[in-house]
Design the sequence.
């Protein structure tokens, strides 16, 4: 069932420019300033480098400004979308080196968390690593692979996407660092994922474990999967991911490490 949202993309003018209000620009500036401080000791070096390359100002960026930087480094671009889009369209865009992104920004009431992927989540959380070739290559190949399946198998591929692109950790000089956009666009999750002793952190050597691990989208994650380095993302393709996804459906889920409120496998929510 689709939830009604108060958020919807702005209509750009004929030159593709969106005019943001002072309040919206203040929200962007507040979020970027706060997150810039938090990520210094918690994001992987490739992410921090991407943030530097994007050189955000105190105003909400226009899509074309972000695309110009991505194109220069990896050939990627932002694809404007009105809001959440269907799964097939989402993965086909990735396969074509286009990252779907709405242009609305959260209100002050939702400053620390919102379920809908806004421009802060998409642009601050994901686009820095789209300047990195290893990450960009993974995203494109994942888009190609996931475009070929549907139904429950695709939902399993969302799950691996969730544990990598959204909530992935890696090791850097024997310390945990985040590369997942869901972590790095969230103040609370950035601190929790790296600093807390509570969550479980599991090496992502065997994607089957991730395929069988359920998650909820609306809580701090009880489990994070860890790569040895960002370049190892692409090594996931050494496995036959579709075969593993199918097998994981037969084997079933591990017991959830969260209260069973809403064991979300809502694909719409993952496509952020
Ligand atoms: Fe996302």
Sequence:
């Amino acid at each position: 069932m689709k939830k009604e949202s108060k958020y919807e993309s702005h209509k750009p003018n004929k030159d593709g420019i969106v005019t943001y209000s002072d309040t919206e620009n203040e929200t962007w500036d507040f979020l970027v300033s706060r997150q810039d401080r938090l990520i210094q000791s918690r994001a992987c070096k490739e992410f921090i480098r991407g943030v530097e390359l994007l050189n955000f100002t105190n105003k909400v960026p226009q899509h074309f400004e972000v695309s110009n930087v991505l194109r220069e480094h990896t050939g990627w671009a932002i694809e404007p979308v009105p809001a959440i889009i269907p799964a097939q369209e989402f993965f086909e865009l990735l396969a074509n080196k286009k990252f779907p992104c709405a242009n609305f920004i959260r209100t002050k009431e939702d400053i620390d968390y919102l379920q809908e992927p806004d421009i802060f989540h998409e642009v601050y959380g994901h686009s820095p690593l789209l300047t990195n070739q290893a990450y960009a290559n993974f995203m494109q190949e994942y888009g190609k692979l996931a475009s070929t399946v549907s139904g429950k198998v695709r939902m399993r591929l969302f799950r691996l996407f969730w544990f990598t692109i959204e909530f992935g950790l890696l090791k850097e000089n024997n310390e945990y660092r985040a590369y997942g956009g869901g972590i790095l666009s969230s103040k609370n999750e950035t601190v929790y994922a790296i600093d807390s002793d509570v969550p479980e952190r599991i090496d992502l050597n065997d994607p089957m474990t991730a395929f069988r691990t359920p998650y909820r989208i609306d809580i701090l994650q009880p489990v994070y999967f860890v790569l040895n380095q960002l370049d190892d993302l692409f090594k996931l393709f050494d496995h036959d991911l579709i075969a593993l996804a199918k097998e994981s459906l037969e084997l079933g889920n591990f017991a959830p490490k969260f209260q069973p409120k809403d064991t979300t496998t809502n694909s719409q929510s993952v496509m952020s």
About this structure: Residues 22-39 form the longest helix (18 residues).
